Structures are given as structure tokens and as C-alpha cells.
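Reply to dn_fold:

You asked what the input looked like. This is it:
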Amino acid sequence: MSVDQAINLMQGMLFTSLMVGGPVILIAFVVGLLISIFQAATQIHEMTLTFIPKIVATIVALIIFGSWMFRQLVEYTQEILKNILILIS
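and this is what came back:
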């Protein structure tokens, strides 16, 4: 395996992981930001107020994006397995 192939392999892996994890992390971030703004405005500093909405939003995001995320991972794995002989030599 050449250095260019290794770099392309790592680039594909990082891009796929960013695409798969990005939507769920972004939704959890937005919900956390909205809860923080709400807490700052109302001065309610209850710890469970931050965790429960983020957990619910993450579960909803996984339900919505789960099949797409799984397809992306399967496509990447199939691509790697198809090219494994090229990568080994």
C-alpha cells in the first residue's frame, strides 16, 4: 500500500464518520444550546433539564437518520472490501 492510498483510505474513513455522526451531534448541540439559553433567561439551573431533552432529541435523530447512517456505513464497508486486494498489494 502506498502512502497516497493510505491517505485516501484515512480521508474516506474520516469523511464517512463525520457524515454519519454529524447530524446526531449537531442536533444534540442545537438542543443543548436552546436549553442553555432558556436556563439563562429564566435562571432555572436544574441539571435534569439539560439531559432529558438532549437524550430525547438524540433518540429522535437516531430514529430519523438511523437507516441513512446504516446505509452510509454499509456502502463504505462494501467499497473497502471491494478494494481490499488493491490496497494489500
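The longest helix spans residues 3-42.
Hope that clears it up.
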